[in-house]
Design goal:
By secondary structure, the chain is mainly α. Helices cover 84% and strands 0% of the residues. Helix 2 packs parallel to helix 5 and helix 4 runs antiparallel to helix 7.
Length: 179
């Protein structure tokens, strides 16, 4: 759930952040289309083949990649303003899109492989409830954190939550990396 909390802290505030840096709605929509395209292309690469195994090591690495992107966004919000944010967002969205697709594939596979049979509906219901609560809470507090402390703090907090998520998965699963 920390992953979903951190992700929604970031995604809820990033579009207003782009708008506050004078990006036009057209540019923001173009960036969103770019992110969606990266998500679609990420399904077709070798990394998604690794994610389809549900290997915790792969998931931890993609959590970390997404956390690094959020960290760069937080630092970028401190050092860049105005139009240069557009040029920072393109590589960020590349990292975020690659990570998100592979996290989704890997987490779903890992969860389905580890569920005891006969109670799948109950387990998925609890999983969904926790994640949706985190998504709701992340979205709810994101704007307030950005308004009070600044966008950079929101993005750095999001990064922290994803790094904690990656660390907890590393600690729990002790994944073995073959690469």
């Amino acid at each position: 759930s920390l992953y979903f909390l951190g992700s929604n802290l970031f995604t809820t505030s990033f579009t207003p952040f782009l708008r506050s840096n004078q990006l036009s709605y057209l540019e923001i929509v173009a960036l969103d289309i770019f992110l969606s395209t990266i998500n679609a292309l990420a399904i077709m690469n070798q990394l998604s083949d690794m994610s389809r195994r549900g290997d915790p090591a792969v998931i931890v690495d993609f959590f970390s990649l997404r956390a690094i992107a959020f960290l760069i966004a937080g630092l970028g919000a401190i050092y860049f303003t105005g139009r240069p944010i557009l040029y920072l967002t393109v590589p960020l969205y590349l990292m975020i899109g690659m990570a998100q697709t592979n996290i989704t594939i890997g987490m779903n596979k890992m969860i389905y492989d580890r569920m005891p049979s006969g109670i799948e509906g109950g387990i998925l219901g609890v999983y969904s409830a926790f994640n949706n609560t985190a998504i709701f809470f992340g979205s709810l507090v994101s704007g307030s954190i950005s308004l009070i402390f600044g966008y950079h703090i929101t993005f750095l907090l999001a990064s922290l939550f994803l790094f904690i998520s990656a660390s907890l998965m590393e600690w729990h699963f002790h994944p073995i990396r073959s690469w």
